[in-house]
Structure formats: C-alpha cells, structure tokens
Amino acid sequence: MDKILLNGLMFYGYHGLFPEENKLGQRFTVDLELKCDLSKAGHSDQMNDSIDYGEVYEVARTVVEGKAKNLIEAVAEDLAKRMFESFSSLEAITVKIDKPGPPIPGYYQSASVVIERERHHAI
C-alpha cells in the first residue's frame, strides 16, 4: 500500500482532564500516515489523483483546535473519522498525537497515542 506521511503538524488545543488544560491549552503535535493507491497520481502528475496535503492539514487543524476532549485518544479517533469522510481514496490511516509535558507526576517529555484505522472500520 502506498503512503503519504505528514509529520510534525503543530496545533494549539484545549484537550485534557484537568481544568487548567481546558483553560490554558497547549501545543499538540500530530503525525499522519495516509494509506492509498498513489499509482494514478504517479502517472498523471495531477493533484486530483492524490490527496491534497494542505486539505489534510486543514482537517487536522479543525479537529485538534476544535471542541475540547478529555482524552487525546478521542481526538485521534475523531481525526481518523474526519479524514475518511474528507478523502474517498483514503483506505487506511495511522494517527499519532503527542502531548508534550502532560500534567502528571514525574518527568515526561510527552505522552502519545497511536491509532490505526481502516476504511471499513470508520464510523
């Protein structure tokens, strides 16, 4: 399966369990692996035969900077769902969301979730 990788997309959101996270917000980093057939785009050299990276970024921005959720797991699930709704040629997706400096005891660089979804599993 062919892949489009978009790495290190950065957004500011208000996701988290604690009131200070919902009030102050923080930066979130998203990595996406979009699985689709890119052979037609490779032969035609036409954007409409692929998935527009700018549109992918806008869908991700809308989700991550949108309605606050308690868990980044829920953000990742919503992001995968929206990608399937937006791009008919998308067959599978891997979403990684990284939350730097989570407000939990101890010293952490970040907390992350990674989900993998296929179109037939999309709601």
Automatic annotation (TrEMBL):
- Residue ranges annotated for the Dihydroneopterin aldolase/epimerase domain, each copy included: 4-117
Per the UniProt record, one Pfam family is: FolB
Any one GO molecular function term: dihydroneopterin aldolase activity
Q: Does the keyword Lyase apply?
A: yes
GO annotation, cellular component aspect: cytoplasm
Pathway membership? Cofactor biosynthesis; tetrahydrofolate biosynthesis; 2-amino-4-hydroxy-6-hydroxymethyl-7,8-dihydropteridine diphosphate from 7,8-dihydroneopterin triphosphate: step 3/4
Which key words tag this protein in UniProt? Folate biosynthesis, Lyase
SMART domains in UniProt: FolB
Q: Name one GO biological process term.
A: tetrahydrofolate biosynthetic process
Catalytic activity of the protein: 7,8-dihydroneopterin = 6-hydroxymethyl-7,8-dihydropterin + glycolaldehyde
Q: InterPro entries, from UniProt? A: Dihydroneopterin_aldolase, FolB_dom, GTP-CH-I_C/QueF
Q: Is Kinase included in the keywords of this UniProt record?
A: no
Q: Give the enzyme's EC designation.
A: 4.1.2.25
- Which function does this protein serve? Catalyzes the conversion of 7,8-dihydroneopterin to 6-hydroxymethyl-7,8-dihydropterin.
Q: Which family does it belong to?
A: Belongs to the DHNA family.
> Under what name is this protein listed?
7,8-dihydroneopterin aldolase
Name its species: Alkalibacillus haloalkaliphilus
Q: Which gene encodes it?
A: folB
